[in-house]
Small ribosomal subunit protein bS16
Amino acid sequence: MAMKIRLARGGSKKRPHYAIVATDSRMPRDGRFLEKLGTYNPLLPKDSEDRIKMDVERVQYWLAQGAQPTDRVARFLEAAGIKDKSERKNLKKGEPGKAAKERAEKRAAREAAANAPAEEAASE
């Protein structure tokens, strides 16, 4: 059985509240789970202690059983010091789009044209 430690969404529209759960990866996001390991409330301030609550011992148990955390839960575990920080790659998402590249090229050409006459006057 492929185990996951992931978030299950609760709360009303535009007021999310998540449960950190251990579940079979084939189950739906908010469906059946084996154990609730903690909670996550993204509406609270980032420095609040109540924002993320986890039962660390149970999380370590499920990790030892082979459960794989999702990206968001892995970040929570890294912040808690349970899991080593891993290198993340953002290959294409961090790269500007086609229109942004064209705007940058036009801006660079305008700046080069504006600086060229000023440099010629300074050299004379």
